[in-house]
Amino acid sequence: MHGRRPTHVEIDLAALRHNLLQVRGKIAPETQVLAVVKADAYGHGAASVAPALQQSGVDLYGVAIAEEGIELRAAGVDRPILVLGGVYPDQEEEFFRHRLTPTLFDLDAARRMDRAAAERGEVCRYHLKIDTGMGRVGFRPEELSEVLPRLVELKHLHLAGVISHLALADEPEHPFTDRQIAIFRDGLAQVRGAGFSPEFIHIGNSAAIFTKDLPECNLVRPGIVLYGALPSAAFAGRLDLLPVMSFRTSVAQLKRVPAGTGVSYAHRFVSERETLLAAIPVGYADGYNRRLSNCGEVLIRGQRAKVAGTVCMDWTLVDVTDIPGVEIGDEVTLLGRDNGNRVSAEEWAERIGSISYEVFCQISKRVPRIYRGK
């Protein structure tokens, strides 16, 4: 098949490299960078994004699950890969086979990895997760006095890093972040007091990289900023980031309808005047959120056109009455820039009551990614 639907995503690898440079500019020269490429690089396509970052000097990668790490190895990534989501039963061999580093936050998983390493005659490197206030996974600080002696007994494990995660770093003035950092420092002292010498110390996510001084840390974990989006609205105007993802399609059909015409499911849009509608071949199955019904805006010929009615699984209608000269085949920008105008991930997220992270991750795999700036 040679022809294809015009709906696609463009990934600007030059913008990705620019954003990585912004991270590098905020950290000490000796501090290493762990690029977070979980969830298919936030929907950008990890198999292409990760090698591009490797060429730009990223030191390590972070993924959520072992399967994502295996995909990176298949894509030719040879740098260390930290699996942030831990190791599930019966996955132990995969970690050794694909040279994946587990994050450990419970003793059962630690013992399983120790047994697996012993059977192979190897040592398993791992990062110890401390829950300093996120409340998800990790050893709570008051548990460390009992946990650390147990980890010392596991001779086929090597504690290579200490990690925690900040809950409110995207609110730069919130005092809880400093409290978490203090708890982390206390936990790190306990780890060292137990005889461990971790190579990597890290708590800095995208927001903290640009707002907090973390002299004890020698590794940072940028995620959303690599892809050109802000950690939160509080960072507007403070970061020199370039958007990496654009989402585009084209006009498939034009239809003029009289006033009083209802369109799309449930007729949630009824024309108040003679209206020119453009049908575009994109819908919620592609990641164009159904909550954009009657409120989303796209760009056609550099001008904004509002979604008319309910976003369907495969189709969306937009009102192009006020855009002169619209033709079938005109490019439609759902996310990105066109002739000086822009629909940002932050704008899209605000319209659906979400965050830019979800906007990117929702773009489905049936939408092809086209990589530019290689």
UniProtKB/TrEMBL annotation:
The protein's matches in Gene3D superfamilies, at most eight in alphabetical order, are given as:
Alanine racemase, Lyase, Ornithine Decarboxylase, Chain A, domain 1
- Name the GO terms of the biological process aspect: D-alanine biosynthetic process
**Transmembrane region(s):** none
**Annotated keywords:** Isomerase, Pyridoxal phosphate
Q: Indicate the segments forming the Alanine racemase C-terminal domain, all copies.
A: 244-372
Keyword Isomerase attached: yes
**Where N6-(pyridoxal phosphate)lysine occurs along the chain?**
38
Pathway of this protein? Amino-acid biosynthesis; D-alanine biosynthesis; D-alanine from L-alanine: step 1/1
According to its UniProt entry, the function of this protein is described as: Catalyzes the interconversion of L-alanine and D-alanine. May also act on other amino acids.
Give the family, as the similarity comment puts it.
Belongs to the alanine racemase family.
Mind telling me what this protein is named?
Answer: Alanine racemase
According to its UniProt entry, this protein's organism is Trichloromonas acetexigens
The upper taxonomy is: Bacteria, Pseudomonadati, Thermodesulfobacteriota, Desulfuromonadia, Desulfuromonadales
